[in-house]
Specification:
Layout (H helix, E strand, L loop, with lengths): L2 H7 L21 H9 L5 E8 L1 E2 L11 E2 L3 H21 L4 E9 L7 H14 L1 E12 L6 H9 L4 E7 L3 H7 L5 H13 L4 E8 L6 H13 L4 E6 L21 H17 L3 E3 L3 E3 L4 H8 L3 E3 L2 E3 L6 E4 L4 E4 L2 E5 L3 H9 L5 E6 L2 H16 L1 E3 H7 L4 H7 L3 H6 L3 E4 L2 E4 L7 H6 L17
Parallel strand pairs: 1-4, 1-13, 2-3, 4-5, 5-6, 6-7, 7-8
Antiparallel strand pairs: 8-10, 9-10, 11-12, 14-15, 15-16, 17-19, 18-19
């Protein structure tokens, strides 16, 4: 990437896992609206997302909604409340069918075998599942034993996402996550012995003390694990939002040039190893469902990243979980204690959200196609939402600058992201974001 381009775009920008982004959510959407919006899914299909906001200990790089928790009583209470919220969802949308299930966090396996089995039984009792529906679960390999692996298999998990981030001991020390290659390989072996065949490896670039040479060694080791997919994210340093990130020395973080070189090295290495590049930061084997969805134009992007789900709708349960519903986004209160108290009162725990306008749906579709396909037919999408394409294009005043900088090309109504622009696709999407002001303090760096 050209130095001038790096300098021009080294600034904060949304990750565009939704549009409007969570920064636009407010308290106008509450439990009553969430219940009404869920009712519209009666007889429809959606993905189910379960958020477990607990880990054994806190990693300093993490920007997720999670906290360190080891108290069995709190884990019991949370599991019971999660099961109760699932019942509320069933009551609001009795004919809901599940196209996919994802356990996220935090560390869902922190619940332990008995609680996982209890919630798994509740899901199986309440909801029908579409044929071929996948169940995925995020796992910390450092805390996986035979009982946990057996329980995960029993509740129907078909794909495991394992956090690795980096195998370099110096980097691990700096982010408070000590995890050897052997520990990770042992966890995968236990899960494979239980019949689970599909694995994702999560890596992060831009971490403290990380170098290209160290990243190469991490990639060498990660490739030995033969995962189906990789998700490789740029570290989001947002200490104003996540105070524990202040424990990371900012002087140890790679600069924009180094981060860009790391991102390119990841792409080069994984593509050379036979993985298909998916969107901005995912890589999948050609026979994986994610690669098939990308090839067929069915790739989606949501709060869980890139997915091959058939339904565009997500029902989120648990503290901080976000639902993507036909009429808008709704999010549960983030604090686990407040979440449990809200469910105990007999309703939902919805704290904020946003209803969608026709303009939001148009812009959201354009942004998703750019993030997923690297191109979009602007006229086709405008016509689909009954918007005059010429008037809409005139309103996007940043397009000429993006063309000038070589990030996009425009032929008639088709907008294509160039290879130069692909690492900066979030900035291209920002041109269509009527809410984004570019102000610092809300988002992480876009490089």
């Amino acid at each position: 990437m050209k130095p001038a381009t790096l300098a021009a775009y080294d600034r904060p920008v949304p990750r565009y896992t939704s549009y409007p982004t969570a920064a636009q959510f407010d308290a106008k959407v509450g439990p009553a609206q969430h219940a009404d919006w869920l009712h519209e899914l009666n007889g429809a299909a959606a993905s189910l997302y379960l958020h477990v906001p607990f880990c054994r200990e806190l990693c300093w790089y993490c920007a997720c909604h999670t906290m360190a928790m080891r108290r069995p009583g709190t884990l019991d209470d949370y599991a019971n409340v999660l099961a109760e919220e699932l019942l509320r969802v069933k009551q609001a949308a009795p004919g809901l069918t599940l196209d996919a299930i994802q356990w996220g966090g935090g560390t869902p396996s922190q619940l332990g075998p008995a609680r996982l089995r209890m919630i798994g039984r509740r899901i199986a009792t309440l909801f029908d599942r579409s044929s071929g529906a996948e169940t995925s679960l995020e796992l910390d390999p450092r805390h996986c034993n035979g009982d946990t692996a057996e329980a995960i298999a029993e509740i129907g998990v078909t794909r495991i996402s394992l956090g690795v981030q980096d195998f370099d001991p110096a980097v691990q020390q700096a982010i408070n996550r000590i995890q050897s290659f052997e520990t990770t390989a042992t966890a995968i072996g236990m899960l494979r012995a239980e019949g689970i065949k599909r694995f994702n490896i999560d890596l992060v670039y831009g971490l403290p003390y990380q170098t290209l040479e160290g990243l190469d060694r991490t990639l060498d080791l990660a490739l030995k694990l033969s995962p189906s997919r990789f998700a490789v994210f740029g570290y989001a340093h947002v200490p104003w939002m996540k105070p524990h990130q202040k424990l990371i020395d900012e002087a140890s973080l790679p600069n924009a040039d180094q981060r860009a070189a790391m991102a390119q090295r990841v792409t080069d290495r994984l593509v050379d190893a036979g993985y298909t590049r998916i969107g901005l930061d995912h890589y999948a084997r050609p026979d994986d469902a994610l690669a098939a969805a990308a090839h067929e134009g069915g790739l989606q992007r949501n709060f869980q990243g890139y997915v091959a789900d058939k339904s565009p709708w997500i029902v989120g349960v648990g503290a901080s979980a976000i639902s993507s519903l036909p009429r808008g986004f709704s999010q549960n209160v983030s604090d686990p204690a407040q979440y449990m108290a809200a469910i105990a009162e007999g309703g939902f725990a919805t704290a904020r959200g946003i209803g969608l306008t026709n303009d939001d749906r148009l812009r959201g579709t354009i942004i998703e196609r750019l993030m997923c396909d690297s191109h979009v037919d602007l006229e086709q999408e405008c016509r689909r939402f009954h918007v005059d394409p010429e008037a809409f294009i005139v309103s996007i005043d940043q397009l000429s600058a993006l063309e000038r900088d070589g990030l996009v090309t425009k032929h008639d109504w088709r907008l294509d992201v160039t290879e130069e622009g692909r690492p900066l696709v979030r900035f291209i999407c920002a041109a269509f974001d009527r809410h984004f002001s570019g102000a610092a303090g809300r988002h992480s760096r876009g490089i």
